[in-house]
Design a protein that fits this description.
By secondary structure, the protein is of the alpha/beta class. The chain contains 21 helices and 20 strands. The structure holds adenosine-5'-diphosphate and magnesium ion. Residues 53-54, 152-153 line the site of magnesium ion.
Length: 552
């Protein structure tokens, strides 16, 4: 709050800001608020979407206005109904006990309530240009004594075809007002309008890289290099809607991470300098359309990607410099949406992180990698919600109802539902899909020993195998401690064993080369439904839907 205090705001305002949860002003707020608090000329402020422009004018406006003078003191023009409502809500939520009356007027809404509001007297009108002009023409709105005229989202107004309407309003409002214009970009037509209708104006431009990180929850995980992948999988799985860009340092890192994600049945693509232009465009189109929700990239390859409504940006590796960090994380938390930026650091990178934190003047808080149990729990919650939705929609075509009736006659409902859940989700909800992570704890590392994998081995009793000889074979071929080989099951033509996640790859590899060549692969499980998320079928559906809301 220190920085807000320095802007010369009153106690009540600071309290309202604090109650709203703002802790420090965004750059555009830091520039606009003090200027507006002082008497002076007009202001043209250019800063991209999501940088807090609304509060930049709302805060000083609330400070300056006197409730209930009986006259409209400020008019805010917004391009759409939604934006007008958003502005009004932001003003109201920052007003605290100061009872300013705010009225929204926009097209499509009945005139009645608007007329009544205007008759009763309001302090601030937030409206779309078309409807404001209607009221001016009807004589139901009077702008001859306003003190402030604010044009919000000016470039968007232009896109909506409101250029002339805006000029008309500017021409008809009190000439002694103060005019403020906010825009993400400055098209020539807007610049012209500003020249024509604004006086003695001060330009405030917030450079792209100074975007506020206010909407970005920045967190970091301290993990060993070898645990990063497992941590990433859990993060993706615990999110309801993961839509993220994952940054790696090199091309090779990108390729490797994509390969590992695909192995874990995530749908992911990589972008780096060696990806051909045509391919790049295909990938980006799919990513933009959210058909692809996990994109791995290098800094260079991600440059120029104009997608910024991501739920997550993940720094799988720390960027080389502060600019890259700001640039990377700025792809989330835009346009009023909250975003999460996650940075993985190895224990030795802690100082580097603190440096970034200080330089960017942001808070990067430490979080723990979600626990497997928690991931499973959120997945279950997600499945339950999906089932709720399906039940609500009903079986319109009656494709399943008859079948269901037959099954219900045959079994207890509880057993039946349990069986269906098992068939659909057993594999997806298996804790053993997750690997282990060394969780740093006081007094050293605690080893989370959960993750194991079931391996299929193409030898069986017909080959003269028994459990003892199979374990011996695995031990000698892949050099793993036989205590790590469990649940050995030798069948007629093949066998199964369980080994720790970390050993599985090396067992598979050792059997795929050398003198003991044998097919060994990860078992998909006999109970997996065809085409279900982990069955490895070649369907085109997203193999993994992201999971539920987390608390890291
Ligand atoms: P813009 O108009 O620049 O696109 P908004 O004014 O709509 O951005 O603000 C985007 C979001 O950021 C809103 O949800 C707003 O409440 C929030 N916000 C604004 N200023 C701050 C701040 N200083 N700290 C935290 N959140 C803020
Ligand atoms: Mg805005």
């Amino acid at each position: 709050m220190e920085k807000f205090k320095e802007l010369g705001l009153s106690e009540f305002m600071l309290a309202a800001i604090e109650a709203k949860g703002f802790t420090e002003p965004s750059p555009v707020q830091a520039a606009v608020i003090p200027t507006l608090m002082n008497d002076g000329g007009d202001i043209i402020a250019q800063a991209q979407t999501g940088t807090g422009k609304t509060a930049a004018f709302a805060i000083p406006l609330i400070e300056k206005l006197t409730p209930r003078t009986g006259k409209i003191q400020a008019l805010v023009l917004a391009p759409t109904r939604e934006l007008a409502l958003q502005v009004a809500t932001e003003i109201e939520s920052l007003s605290g006990d100061k009872k300013l009356r705010v009225l929204t007027v926009y097209g499509g809404q009945a005139y009645g309530p608007q007329l009544k509001g205007l008759r009763d007297g309001v302090d601030i009108v937030v409206g779309t240009p078309g409807r404001v002009i209607d009221h001016l023409d009807r004589g139901s709105m009077e702008l001859s004594s306003i003190s402030y005229l604010i044009i919000d989202e000016a470039d968007e107004m232009l896109n909506m075809g409101f250029a002339e309407a805006m000029e008309q309003i500017l021409a008809r409002a009190n000439p002694d007002r103060r005019t403020l214009l906010f825009s993400a970009t400055m098209p020539p037509r807007i610049a012209d309008m500003a020249r024509k209708f604004m006086k003695n104006s001060q330009h405030i431009t917030v450079k792209k890289r100074d975007i506020t990180t206010a909407l970005i929850d920045q967190i970091y995980f301290e993990v060993k290099e070898k645990d990063k992948f497992e941590a990433l999988c859990r993060i993706i799985d615990i999110e309801k809607q993961f839509y993220g860009l994952i940054f790696c340092r090199t091309k090779a890192d990108v390729d490797q991470l994509v390969r590992k994600l695909l192995e874990r049945n995530f749908v992911a693509e990589g972008l780096h300098g060696d990806v051909a232009q045509a391919q790049r465009e295909i990938i980006l189109d799919r990513f933009k359309a959210q058909k692809l929700t996990i994109l791995v990239a290098t800094d260079v390859a991600a440059r120029g990607i104009d997608i910024n409504n991501l739920s997550h940006v993940i720094n799988y590796a720390l960027p080389n410099d502060i600019d890259s960090y700001v640039h990377r994380i700025g792809r989330t938390g835009r346009a009023g949406n909250k975003g999460t930026a996650i940075t993985f650091i190895t224990p030795s990178e802690y100082r580097k992180l603190i440096f970034i934190q200080n330089k960017t003047r942001s808070e990067i808080r430490k979080a723990e990698v979600p626990d497997v149990k928690e991931v499973i729990k959120t997945k279950k919650a997600r499945i339950t919600e999906e089932i709720d939705a399906i039940v609500c929609m009903g079986d319109e075509e009656g494709r399943f109802t008859k079948w269901a009736e037959k099954l219900i006659e045959k079994y207890e409902a509880r057993d039946l539902v349990a069986a269906l859940l098992k068939q659909s989700f057993e594999e997806e909800l298996d804790e053993q899909n997750y690997g282990e992570i060394n969780v740093p704890e006081r007094g050293g590392y605690r080893v989370d020993t959960r993750g194991t994998t079931r391996l299929f081995i193409a030898v069986g009793r017909v080959d003269g195998m028994n459990p003892r000889s199979l374990v011996d074979l695995i031990r000698t071929t892949s050099n793993i401690d036989d205590r790590l080989i469990n649940d050995v099951k030798v069948l007629e033509k093949f066998s199964f064993v369980t080994v720790p996640f970390t050993e599985a790859e090396s067992v598979i590899r050792s059997f795929s080369s050398g003198k003991q060549r044998l097919l060994v692969k990860k078992d998909r499980g006999p109970n997996t439904a065809p085409g279900s998320p982990r069955s490895g079928g070649f369907d085109d559906r997203p193999k993994r839907q992201a999971s539920y809301k987390k608390k890291y």
